[in-house]
Amino acid sequence: MSVYKRKSGRYAVLIDLESTALGGRRRKSVGTFRTRKEAEAAERKALQQRDDGIDIPTAHLTVRTIVQRYIDRCRAKGLAPTTTMRYDSLAKPIFDAFGDVVVTKLSPASVAQMYAQCQSNVLSPKSIRHVHGLLHAALEWAVQMNLVIRNVASIAACDLPKLKKSPARALTETEAQQLLEAAKGSPWYAFFTLAICSGARRGELAALRWSSIDFENKRMTIDQSLTRTDDGQKFKEPKTGLIRTVPLNRLATATLQWHKLQQNRDRKRAGGAYDEGDLVFADPLGEASNLTAITNAFGRIAKDAGVHARLHDLRHSCASWMLQSGIDIRTVAGVLGHSSPVTTLGTYSHLMPGAEAKAVDAIAARLEAAAS
């Protein structure tokens, strides 16, 4: 029995932990309480903490233990492998600075000092803020588990370096044409053309299958993405978890039809060695293309074209051209797969020059029309 009454009249609580390596029973005392109701509440809380992996006395819990258990919890809950891999990397400056410090002894000044040290180590403001985000989330979890009273990372946030946001870079029509011209004759011409025509992400295009392309109705469905993990490349749901259908314009449709003919030639050359995985942008043996190879190929082609751009700038160009053509923000967000138009607006508002002037001019026009 976990809750029992002592001779003193107080109620004691014991909970079972994992068995020892030799199969022996391990129990932990939670404390004593005035009433059975208080004891049962403490038992429920202790069992929850045990199930969440907290079975070490609070006085001995280090920052390293808290952060690592938070990352392990995220991994167990199915967070994207690329995200948890990034967490492992972000944890290093935290562990280096005060990994062995008891979490209840961690101070806002220590956290602020870590941010300063990260800057000295030439870590970018964005990366430092990502380190802060991990520490803050881990400590917030510790607060919810009643392992610490306050989240000191919240207090130290005022010492984070300011983030200089670089505006999204859109290619000019001339630059885009130069780039696509340079890509002709390479295996990536169709990939880059579809990227700029649809605004799809690299991983989404790499995971695209022919069964998701409807040539008759000129549209494609984006329902998965290719990503890197510790175990190699894996397919997963799109970044925001939203499956979307994107219309295909004339150029995209014609290019995909041409690309399919080229791929059929690869299939014939490979014979029985070809992997019939239905991937649109497969390698010569039908397997998923390497994501790094795609990015590197773009860099080489852009250099040959004399265009200073990143692969992701094709997505920015698609969004920019739509907005500058007067397409409403909600429609653009839907094409890009943003979870909210607010995301789209925050990224691309600077690419809509004159939008405010047009808005107030519309008011004047209405008033003048009413007066006439």
Topology:
Elements: E1 3-5, E2 11-16, E3 27-33, H1 36-51, H2 63-76, H3 81-98, H4 108-120, H5 125-144, H6 152-156, H7 173-183, H8 189-198, H9 202-206, E4 213-214, E5 219-222, E6 225-229, E7 232-236, E8 244-247, H10 250-270, H11 291-305, H12 313-324, H13 329-336, H14 341-348, H15 355-371
Antiparallel strand pairs: 1-2, 2-3, 4-5, 5-8, 6-7
Short structural summary:
By secondary structure, the chain is mainly alpha-helical. Helix content is 52%, strand content 10%. Helix 2 packs across helix 5, helix 7 packs antiparallel against helix 8 and helix 8 runs antiparallel to helix 10.
Number of helices: 15
Rounded to the nearest angstrom, the radius of gyration is 28 Å
Number of strands: 8
Order of helices and strands: EEEHHHHHHHHHEEEEEHHHHHH
Approximate shape: globular
Which percent range fits the helix content?
40-55%
- Name of the CATH superfamily of the largest domain: Intergrase catalytic core
Question: What proportion of the residues form beta strands (DSSP E)?
Answer: 5-15%
Distance between termini? 87 Å
How many individual domains?
Answer: 3
